[in-house]
Amino acid sequence: MPDRSALRTLAHPLRSRLLAELRVHGRATGTELADALGTHTGATSYHLRKLAEVGLVEDTGTGTGRRRVWRAVDLAADAPSDEEPVDEDDAQAADWLALDYLAHFGDRARGWLAEQHAWDPVWRQTCGLEDHTVQVTTEQLSALRAELLEVLDRYRRVGQGNPAAKRVVVYTCPLPVDPSSPGSSRT
Questions:
Q1: Closest Cα partner for 50 from 30, 28, 27, 74?
Q2: Which of 91, 98, 123, 179 could cysteine-pair with 85, CB 3.0–4.6 Å?
Q3: Do 88 and 31 belong together in one domain?
Q4: Residues 149, 102, 41, 45: is their CA dihedral positive or negative?
Q5: Count of structural domains, the chain
Q6: How far is CA 2 from its chain centroid?
C-alpha cells in the first residue's frame, strides 16, 4: 500500500492509469503511454514525474536524450502499511483509488469477455471470472492472503523466456458475505 503522499498523488485518473499501464505492460516511454491511454505526451510526462516524486515509478536510465523509459516500482517488496488514513483528504483519496481500481478491473474483465473467443480453448478454460467462498476468522483470512501472495510471487516470472507464456493479471478481492450486525465483532 502506498504511503499517504503517494496515495494522494495516485488519486488522479491519469496517474492511476499510467501506473496500471506500467505494472501490466512493463517499461514504456511517455509517448508510448500517451498513445496507449489516448492522452497528450506533455500531460503524460508531467504526471509521470509526479508519480516518480513519490516513488511509484522511476526512470530506468535506458532512454536516449529526452526519450525517458519509465517503469513501475515494485511495491510488493515494501512492508504492508497498517496505517489508516487519518484525515478526510486521505480517506477520500483512498476511497477514490479503490473505486478507480474497481473500474479498471471491470474494464479489463469486460475486455476479456469481448475477446475470449479469439483465444485458444485452453486459455478460455483457465482464464476468466470465478469466486470461491471460504469461512474464516480475520486471522485465518490474513494467513490465506499471505499464502496467495506467496503463490503469486512464485509465479511472477516463471514463464519468462518461454514464447508460449503470456502475462496474466490475477485480481484478489476477499469480500464479506455475511452481514455485519451492529455492536458485534466479526472475527
A1: 30
A2: 91
A3: yes
A4: negative
A5: 2
A6: 11
